[in-house]
Structures are given as C-alpha cells and as structure tokens.
Amino acid sequence: MNFSISLTVNGARRDIELDDPRVTLLDLLRERLQLTGTKKGCDRGQCGACTVLVNGQRINSCLALAISHDGADVMTIEGVARGDQLHPVQAAFIAHDGMQCGFCTPGQIMSAIGLIEEGQAGDDPERVREGMSGNLCRCGAYAGITDAVLEATKNLAQSDQRRSA
Ligand code: FES
Ligand code: FES
Predict the structure, then answer these.
(1) Ligand 1, closest atom to CA 46?
(2) Where exactly are the structural domains of the chain?
(3) For residue 93, what are the CA distances in angstroms to 13, 20, 24, 148, 149?
(4) What is the model's pLDDT at position 120?
(5) CATH 3.40.50.720: does it fit domain 3-79?
C-alpha cells in the first residue's frame, strides 16, 4: 500500500509517495530527496547528527516517521544559506573552528539555529552547552562550537535590532 505525503523542504513543496509507513524523515531526506547534508550517525536518537528543523523546531529526524509529518515545513542544512551568503551560524562555526572532521557539523548548525530561535541560548556558555548537549562531536570541537553559538546569538540579535530600529 502506498501513502502520499507533501512536505515543504527548504521552501519548495515536495510531493512524495511512500511504499512503507516506517520510512523515517531522515531516510526520506537522504535517500528520496538526495539531501545528504543531514547525517546518519547512530540512527537511534543519541547523537544529533540528523537534526533538522520541522515547523521551526529542532528534531532528530532519525526518530521521526516521515508520514507523521505530512504537511510540515522542513529545513535542512542545504536550506540555511542564501545563495553564496552563509547563515550567521555557519559563518560563526567557521570563524571559531567549530568543527574538525565535519560529520556532526550540519546537525550542530541546525541545532544551534533552533536553540537561538528558541531564545534559550543567551550569552551564558553553560546554557549554550546544555542547549546543545543532544549533539555529540566525536572530535571534541565543543569549545569552538560553544563560542560559535555565542557569537551567532549576538550577531543575530544585533541584526534584529538594526532591522527594528
Ligand atoms: S542519527 Fe539521529 S540522533 Fe543519531
Ligand atoms: S567535527 Fe568530527 S564529529 Fe564533530
């Protein structure tokens, strides 16, 4: 039995036929839509490599059934830059060496964008570490990641202020 679902992925509507209701959002993104920036680390909700935003909330896409997100708005790492212009969180990760091998980085960046949008990051490194604790980095790039999230939070707040002035 086939199921059809519609998602908006990085701003574009995608109509997808599923032949198995157990397909995860992660597998749909990687294997059906060829959006392989979202990584499969553990495939069991323990590493955060598969983090994407669904309706603005960060989730582990390996734990989400695609069929249960029919109609959702999904943003992946492929959708965060504006052409050649990096998202402020991406730029901050580069500026602060928030990566080594880069495997965890898409998930870290999506999680950081979600955390900042939640308004939970602030300027407290401890709160940033807590808010990012679902995203593991085998390379141990945590110091750079925390610094990047702090700087991106500050930069995004300043550009919000400039827009509203
Ligand atoms: S691959 Fe989803 S949490 Fe590890
Ligand atoms: S940069 Fe290698 S796992 Fe995080």
Answers:
(1) 3
(2) 3-79, 88-164
(3) 29, 37, 28, 5, 8
(4) 78
(5) no
